[in-house]
Amino acid sequence: MPFASPEDLKWCDKKTIRKEGEIPRPGFANAALLATWVVGDQVFIGIIGGEAKSPRFSMAHATKLVPFRVNSIHMISIGFITVLVPSNDPQLLGGSGIAASPFVIAIQDSGIPGIVSLLNPGMMCGVLAIAAESVYISSRVLRTLAHRKLIPELLARVDSQGRPRWGYINHLRHASAPRLHSSISITSASYFIIAFTNRRFHCALEAQNDALFKELYAWKSSLWPLAPGWLITISPLLLGCCIAAGIDLSGAGFTPSNFFEYIIGVYCMTGRRTLAIEEINQLDEYYKLSKWRRFLTYVQLWLLSTAGTYKTPMPFNEPNLHYTPSSLEREKLIAAVQDLRQKLPLRVPSIKNGQEEAQQPSPSDSEMYMPSEISSIFAKYTPATAAEVSAAIEAVLMAKKAWQDMPFVDRAAVFLRAAELVSEKYTFELMAATMLRQGKNAWQAEIDAAAELADFFRCNVSFAEEIYSRQPKLNERGQAGFVYAISPFNFTAIGGNLVSGPSLLGIVVLWKPSPSNIYANFLVYKILREAGLPPNVVPFIGGDAETITRVALAHSELSAINFTGSSDVFRSLYGKIADGVKERKYRDFPRLVAETSGKNFHLIHPSADISNDVKHTIRASFEYAGQKCSACSRIYIPENRAQQFFSEMRRAETGQTFNKVTRVIDAANTDSRLELVAGGRYDGSKGFFIEPTVYSAKTLDHPLFDQELFGPILVAYVYRDADFDSLLAKIDQQGGGFALTGSIFATDPVAIRSAEDRLRYAAGNFYINCKTTGAVIGQQSFGGARCSSTNDKAGSANMLMRFTAPRTLKEEYHSLDSVLYPSNC
Question: Which SUPFAM superfamilies does its entry note (predicted)?
């Protein structure tokens, strides 16, 4: 029978949904058709596709999963049923069953015995899979639609066990026997199929006798066979089913198997009760129960529980917008920038106990100016006092227990929701704040505040799940105490990364943003709170760096520092932590995770494509005025290609850039050891504007090869082609002790392999025919060697591992017969 559309089908008195003029399909076939409509509805197909994989999957990515995660499963099952079930079978679960199928009869006639015994369970599993998927998906879809304000919140309300109340109301509204039959068929089938797919969870739970393991994994296990409240609630439904069955015994083909199905459905709905964390201790009372009660409990644990760990969504990189003239995204960005300008100066509130506190202007207020318009105040804020910092630390430690006890799936949901808010609701506001205060253009703001921040949130969830998946060999506990996160001025996304990694592991984080980027980071904090981050899990503290750091480093519960900034500042922090350790100030040895300075290089080989290399070098050196820690600031060019390189460099078009490096330019312009190749001018009348500047050094020993400038200045050295091999050793020695990023440009594979080997420790991120900037989260983890970082590789599970306190678990299953070893005898 061809599948009908919903509007062509109607309910019939004979427990059957049919199309006009066609033979009815009774029994479980109703459930199959209902499930097909749910999956096939074009309005919900995108949402269903995402919800089928994970309860909290991205809407933007959901539709890609439909053919693989939903339609394929259902269509295979439906095809299986269509082949095996004849249209004129009077009752699927009674009498003939699949034995009446011409397909089955043909197989039996060929001499293959036992086919009915094999195919009956197979057909049942197919129907059960359809029913289970449909019920589970529909309940999650309701929650998603309500979360997105597409339907009233009332329709998505659930009870304390997560069962959608609206579903029962909807079923009762259609009080006919056919609707009751189908609803309970689907309900009972769904719980059975979910139970069997989660059997492996129960095996693991039974094997582990550790309380912490149970807290992490048993939070949705069934405990008691019946819940009295729901038994009373569902009794009218059971009674209605029995009455309808009794009235309709003669006409509907009602069989004992139908009644058994009803009873199982009611039992499942009334009996499934979830286990709260605080009820874990009641497991001890389980062993005091009578044997028959323990047997019933065991049966339900084995069959009817929906316990298990969720699989988080596969992370993906946020697609980049390009803001071409007249594009919709360009218009929205312009509008956001204009709207933010009208609100200047912005006020960053103080955060206490997770709540924003409006403050009156004060002489102690700090003011942040726009670097492109130094006459305009961008934002004001009141610096936190030492007492306020101490109060924030005590509050964060108070919040730690509840946050750590929260199941990982719920902690992950906070950051997955935050990623969606970043990529949808707050995209242009974040970009506008980043552009005006940090001086970035549209593209640089896009790859930072819009894309990279969302990538960090999504990928860190995946990295945390990767760490937890190694259990139960190791119990990956979060660190005790709190983490002190210090974020930089130049990237909005980095602040989100510094707090999200530890937080996902159940750790609380004291966040001190850079004053120069405090408003954009405040927006990130605001997004996290809107996404469901509890108060005081990540206190947001703006103020004097020395004051906040002094209070944080004096606290005994400090467990780690997560830092991005200059190497000099990190050296100071390192020394203070060492002094505290020596004085036995801390309960644990604090861990230090840092990304710091760089003096990054491009090495051009004589075989290189100069035109391509010039473009890469301009982007690496002058994007965002060279204010990236990975920016290229030294380059080595072969003598026979230098003229072409410099010629194309002068012709390249660049926009306005800015920074406070005028004294370096003034000194370099009068230095006889340097030749000005391009730029060299600046204007500080309206803002901090500096032309992209290139100098060619006459000697390899010039200080500019070791000095970090954090500005649009590139120093070049022209080497003889024959000196390529000896130059590698010099490049390795230069760089001021930093080793963050470096790149070789060549088409000669021997030269590439030689540079890769000889410069093994000259860069933590080494690139081949690619600029030194632009590592993408989830594709290239980022971290420098030597004094450029602790090289824990941001954008990988390795960095999150730094915030774990692994605990090895061992349990013996035999008793010792003697204190002595065999060799002692």
Answer: ALDH-like
**Residue ranges in the chain whose pLDDT is less than 50:** 1-71, 74, 85-97, 129-141, 144, 148, 159-164, 166-208, 210-235, 237-239, 242-287, 297-309, 655-660
Residue whose pair of structure tokens reads 């318009």 in the numeric block? 373
| CB-CB contact of 619 with 587 (8 Å) | no
Nearest to 562 by CA among 806, 805, 796, 803: 803
What does the DSSP assignment read for 534-603?
Answer: PTTSS-B--S-HHHHHHHHHT-TTEEEEEEES-HHHHHHHHHHHHHHHHTT--SS--EEEEE----EEEE
Q: Are 113 and 64 in contact (CB under 8 A)?
A: no
475-488 pLDDT, tens digit each: 677 788 899 999 99
Cα torsion 588, 593, 597, 601 to 10°: value is: 140
Q: State how far the Cα of 576 lies from the Cα of 558, in Å rounded to an integer.
A: 13
Which pLDDT value is given to residue 688? 78
Q: Which of 309-312's residues contact partners 24+ apart within 8 Å by CB, and which partners?
A: 309/201, 309/217, 309/408, 309/409, 310/54, 310/55, 310/409, 311/53, 311/54, 311/465, 312/54, 312/56, 312/409, 312/412, 312/416, 312/461, 312/462, 312/465
What is the end-to-end Cα distance of the chain in Å, rounded? 81
Q: Which tokens belong to 464?
A: 């945390």
Helix axes 408-423, 451-468, angle to 10 degrees: 170
Q: Which residue has the tokens 């339907």?
A: 151
* Cβ–Cβ under 8 Å, residues 382 and 364: yes
Name the residue among 459, 174, 472 with its Cα closest to residue 314. Answer: 459
- In this predicted structure, what is the pLDDT of residue 601? 95
The token pair that represents 229 in the structure block: 């409240």
CA 152 to CA 111: how far, in whole Å?
A: 59
Residue 279, CA distances (Å) to 228, 239, 286, 743 in order: 17, 33, 11, 57
CA 596 distance to own-chain centroid: 25
* The architecture CATH gives domain 385-595+801-805: 3-Layer(aba) Sandwich (3.40)
Contact between 10 and 17 (Cβ < 8 Å): yes
Radius of gyration of the chain, Cα coordinates, nearest whole angstrom: 33
Whether the CB-CB separation of 397 and 514 falls below 8 Å is answered with no
- Cα distances from 229 to residues 222, 232, 419, in angstroms, run 16, 5, 39
Domain locations in the chain as residue ranges: 1-156, 385-595+801-805, 600-786
C-alpha span between 588 and 140 (Å, rounded) = 43
Q: How far apart are CA 366 and CA 14, in angstroms?
A: 77
The answer to whether 784 touches 594, Cβ cutoff 8 Å, is: no
How many other β-carbons are positioned within 10 Å of the β-carbon of residue 820? 9
* Helix, strand, coil abundance in the chain, percent, nearest 5: 50, 15, 35
Q: What is the pLDDT of residue 654?
A: 52
- Give exposure, 71-102, as e/b (b: 16+ Cβ within 10 Å): bebbeebbebbbebbbeebebbbbeebbeebe
Tell me, what's the pLDDT at 485?
95
Contacts of 260 (CB under 8 A, 6+ apart): none
- SS3 label, residue 107: helix
* 694 and 679 Cβ atoms separated by less than 8 Å: yes
Give catalytic residues, as residue numbers: 595, 629
pLDDT of residue 327: 86
Helix (H, G, I), strand (E, B) or coil at 176: coil
715, 673 Cβ separation under 8 angstroms: no
pTM above 0.85, yes or no: no
**Residue among 635, 639, 638, 642 nearest 601 (CA):** 635
Predicted pLDDT at 790: 93
| Residue 534 near residue 403 (C-beta atoms within 8 A) | yes
- Say if residues 691 and 712 touch (Cβ distance below 8 Å): yes
Looking at 343-405, list the stretches that DSSP marks H as alpha helix, in order from N- to C-terminal side.
386-405
pLDDT at residue number 116? 58
Pick the CATH number of 600-786 from 3.40.309.10, 3.40.630.30, 2.40.37.10, 3.40.50.620: 3.40.309.10
